[in-house]
Amino acid sequence: MRIAVLAGGVGGARFVQALAEVVPPSDVTVIANVGDDLEVHGLHVSPDLDTLLYTLAGLGDEERGWGRAEETWNALDTIERLGAETWFQLGDRDLGLHLVRTEALRRGEALSALTERVARAVGLEAGLLPATDDRLRTRIRTPAGEFEFQEWFVARGHRDRVDAVVYDGAAEAKPAPGVLEAIEAAELIAIAPSNPFVSIGPILAVGEIRAAVERRHERVVAVSPLIGGRAVKGPADRMLRRLAGGTSPRHVAGCYPGLIDALVVDEADADDLDSLGDVRPIVTRTLMSDADARRRLAETALGAVPA
Ligand code: GDP
Ligand code: CA
Hints:
With 307 residues, the chain is α/β, with parallel strands linked by helices. The chain has 12 helices and 14 strands. Strand 3 and strand 4 form a beta hairpin. Helix 1 runs parallel beside helix 2, helix 4 crosses helix 5 and helix 7 runs parallel beside helix 9.
């Protein structure tokens, strides 16, 4: 069964890993958020692509959920000693990828081509595509001003209230090569339990991607990132309350209007399934606490596909 998955970083990677454990990984194509990308010390960093790459290749730090396992931080120590900014942490192993990527992009290679090259080099079997090769940046409007995504998320600890999320460049952005084909060829299109506003939102802000998903909405299943109305980690619950008016399944479904057929929700949210409209609820345990739990979630999501 061919599967296309829209995914952000940590929640996205855990779910894609689960899918790749229950179907042949080569049947899975990930369409990844690039709205979090940033320049750090002159290097192009793609946090969500990197989290997906490291997790799927078995190179990731499972505990932390991002970055490389057995990481060391010598470069960061030097950066700190030299008085430069260290709010965005880059490990030594991780830095190697950013060097290669930055050099490739400066040479004019597309982000998708570079990602494919890197994925092949680490033996990735699943397809990994950036949503777009064009510049698309998530910006966050708060009472304290407008911030680049990582400045708000990491440097300011996502404490500022979010008044609006802006996808800079989305109007002109084209899907990366392979993205529309993956959506069109998929028997199941999954939206990972990633943050709807800052992980999935930027992907769907690319008009041709949204239209392609909309055309195939009968095969789209989303997994809610909330358990008992709360995010497992991060600001998704606060953002839903503020930007969607609440944290029940219908508010999550409301982030994907006309785009999804089914929504996988946690048992803890099962008494709140009113007014989901024509979105079919699928109730299960959604915490990916270990390999068994995440596999069960993937199997449930796979079961959502119409015969
Ligand atoms: P980021 O790009 O690294 O911030 O990660 P994502 O946007 O892909 O994922 C963050 C979201 O994943 C958060 O809103 C979490 O609530 C959600 N999440 C993380 N682990 C789990 C899990 O085990 N189950 C569910 N349902 N959601 C999860
Ligand atoms: Ca992210």
